[in-house]
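Fold it.
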Amino acid sequence: MSWEGDVLLWIQDNLRNPVLDAICKLFSYVGAHGELAFAAALILMIIPKTRLKGIFCTLSLGTTFLMSNLIIKNIVQRPRPYTVTDGLTSLMGVMNDYSFPSGHSASTFSVMFAVFLLMPKKFGIPALCASVFMAYSRLHVGVHYPGIFFACLYTFIYKKKFAPKQENAELLKGK
């Protein structure tokens, strides 16, 4: 058995309980089609002051969706962990697509990590926490494994080409 299977079985045996199971299943449903990530990017695009950041978050989300769900997942074709790990059960039922990468985690991280990098800490830290919990929820329910590459790429482009110099100075100071 792989170390990944060992981790998932440990979560199943030690952390699953009715309350946390329900929260993780709810979080998984909220992220099923990138709803959480899309909502965050949309809110940023609606607010004039954060519109450009919202556009970059949307670019990150779109690229991540294309790469993770349509390309990488079909190239790697990694089976769901509950199909290859003896004793592991899925709390989400049987799924017909592949496991790697997690579209839920990749989508959420692609936007929320960009929010973490681009926005004040009072928004960035909760956004990053939501991403981490989304990734955990997919492990908790027994269906996955995560991604932030495109959030980093588009944040780098934004900071280098579009962010005002004063904003960059504030970001460096952690404001």
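The radius of gyration is 17 Å.
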